[in-house]
Amino acid sequence: MPSRTPRTLLTALAAVALLAGTTALTAPATAAPAAAAATWDTDRAATAYAANPAAVTASGSEKAGTAAALAFDGNGATRWSSNFADDAWIRVDLGSTIRVDRVVLDWEAAYGKRYVLEVSRNGTDWTPFYTETAGTGGSVTAHTYPQEVTGRYVRLRGLERATPYGYSLYSFKVYGGEPAAASTTRTNLALNHPAYSNLYQHAGNSPAFVTDGGWPASLKGDSTRWSSDWNADRWVSVDLGATSTISSVDLYWESAYAVDYLLQVSDDNRTWRTVYQPSAAEVSARRANVQAPGDAAGLHDAVTLPTPATGRYVRMLGKERRSFYNPAPSTAQFGYSLYEFQVWGTGGSASASYPALPGEQSGSYQTTFFDDFTGAALDRSKWRVVRTGSEMGSVNGESQAYVDSADNIRTDNGELILRAKYCKGCTKAGGGTYDFTSGRIDTHTKFDFSYGKVSARMKLPVGDGFWPAFWLLGSNVDDPSVSWPASGETDIMENIGYGDWTSSALHGPGYSADGNIGARQTYPNGGRADQWHTYAVEWTPTAMRFYVDDRLVQETTRNKLESTRGQWVFDHNQYVILNLALGGAYPAGWNQVTSPYWGLPQSSVDRIAGGGVQAEVDWVRVEQKR
């Protein structure tokens, strides 16, 4: 659903003393030869099959004309069709051990509803790296970042077919490369090594792409690059695997290059030493190069360090982003965008690996927060009242001002009441004038937490443009170096006035606003939103599971989210929010109302003016494992 918190852009970091060094700014025409750039997009499975047809094996095939080899022959019109069994499988021997960056599956109509992609070093012991539980066919790209997926064999193992036929694949593509080994002679120690960043735009622009050996000769285009979110305080780093002696660094930038940045080294990935920064003259020239996005190209920074540096980790820390005409004379800044990060020197080790991701928590659930609203007034030791113009600004084109008033927020007979009120032109807040007031409360600074079951029993108003919500927001949302959607948002329940359904959603980098990861649920057996229902999410280190009346309505795993959409940003504190909004982007997107208020028709205005439009909450509970 639409965002609620405007993005805040971070200003440039404080100046750092210039360290002497040299850099060559190379025009796109002199980028590395095509042969060097080609390796990143080589289909290693097709190459292995061409070299050795026996590299491909499967549990079986429907007939001779749909043999397993046809998924690897590079012909998009031929296909493998398996034996008619849920547990059918197909695998390829790549011929050497590589770090797998991504796997692309092109399904025919007989696709897998549930299946697993696995990797093995020996063809016997398998490790899953992508699990599909609700496949819909088509073309699926499963990125491996930030998992350690290194091996010689890759297998698709079926769990459940979507049709009575077998699994049918037009193509099964595997991309990746051999990690750079330890070297006593000067080499690119970063090639196919683990890379990291604080934030990135989406799965197709993860840090893994900066070490895959590829960049377009023109230094233009979207392929094989890391792209940060739109913030100056962003970095990307490489693990060389062992302490190394570093003599130079090559940065192949897309047009959204860093105007100013630091190159840093570290022994432990925590304490960093700056070894290079562009000169003031270089920064000035880069800053002055303002163009329209479609006309702009990237840069190749060939940096020779004044003195060889030692360390295991190397980082580019951005300080200032390039500006673009948007359109001229107005300018805008986007994220940093880097095709390739080469680190030249001696040392290193091919054993560098991504750390294991968190698993499920142990323990049993215990209640850590509860409010049944039986007090005479809202318990402000548990809840913060949010006001427009104070704790938040106006968002999403909504028509109400949130105020701290018993007319809008009160307890009554063991229930929390959030009520909408109408008075034309009566409310001044945050520099604006509002015709509506309503209530919003949250637990920020009172109860911020990580992981658990979060639930509430609620009865909702039904009517076009009434937008009650029960949700969680990352506690770091107000940090300008993070902001939304990097903070993460978990919408446990939203309703925009329709009586028969509600929605749930996750928002983060690469999956926010209308591009969220969400689901709609329809009440069974004629149920309605204006009846009492329990809405809940179970938030764990590995998944988000949403429920209505104990019925699972959405499940999103960390594995699938990071493989196909973007960064999992639900590993830090969030807080609970309850609110009743009026009109705005989400309702308007459905009801198409533009007057008298966006998303809020006159019939709904009349109901608010008549009184009684309110969201009711019986109780709120958070349970955590202890």
UniProtKB/TrEMBL annotation:
Tree of life domain: Bacteria
Matches recorded under CDD domains: GH16_laminarinase_like
Alphabetic keyword roster: Hydrolase, Signal
InterPro entries the record matches: Beta-glucanase-like, ConA-like_dom_sf, FA58C, Galactose-bd-like_sf, Glycosyl_Hydrlase_16, TAT_signal
GO biological process entries: carbohydrate metabolic process
UniProt GO MF annotations: hydrolase activity, hydrolyzing O-glycosyl compounds
Domain F5/8 type C, chain residue ranges per copy: 37-177, 184-346
Sequence ranges assigned to domain GH16 in this UniProt record: 352-626
SUPFAM superfamilies the record matches: Concanavalin A-like lectins/glucanases, Galactose-binding domain-like
PROSITE patterns: FA58C_3, GH16_2, TAT
Signal peptide stretch: 1-31
Family from the record: Belongs to the glycosyl hydrolase 16 family.
PANTHER family xrefs: GLYCOSIDE HYDROLASE FAMILY 16 PROTEIN (PTHR10963:SF55), GLYCOSYL HYDROLASE-RELATED (PTHR10963)
Name assigned to this protein: Glycosyl hydrolase family protein
Native source species: Streptomyces griseoluteus
Upper taxonomic lineage: Bacteria, Bacillati, Actinomycetota, Actinomycetes, Kitasatosporales
